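User: Please predict the structure of the protein below. I'd like the answer in structure-token form so I can feed it into my own downstream comparison script.

Assistant: Understood. Taking the following sequence of 199 residues as input:
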Amino acid sequence: MADNLIPKAAANVQHEKLKRRELLALLRDVTEQRDKLLSQFEAMAHQVDESTEQIDEAMVEARLDAKRAEDSEHHAEQEIAHANELSHQLDEERRKSAEIAAEFARFRDTMERAPVEDPWGVLWRAVSQIVSDWVAWVRAKIPSDSAFLPWFDRAVELAKTALCLALKWGKALFEWTKPRVIDLCKWLKSKFARRRNKE
């Protein structure tokens, strides 16, 4: 029986060695597979990191593009509003020009039909009307809250007063010199006539 035990023990030892070898081989295979899986997971993690960076960059770029588009749209809206304002101003200027042209046509028609008894008076009224229109146009261009507006009004009043005084003095000078010039002309005529008679 003791002889029986030895081969059984030897068989058990061999069996154990075989199991151990198989287990070691299996352990090596499992370790290799684990290492392969770890390297694949690391590669996948690296790809995920790169993809995340690319996605982050794409998101930042998309946000920048959206901001640029919004700014561009806002700028376009401002440009459209500015263009509309300029168009409105142009229409207003055209309307005013048409009014002025109609006023000049009406004035010309009135002047052509009216009998001219006092041409200097008609000329003075026409010039004063044109100057008044120019002054009103310039005054309309000055903003109502401008500090320059009262000075402009004062300058216009001063110019009107100075012009009225100049006209008054000019008329008085003309009235004063007219008889004297006539007398001088008569005196010179008579003097030349006497000289001719002497010769």
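That's the full token string. The two ends are 198 Å apart (CA to CA).
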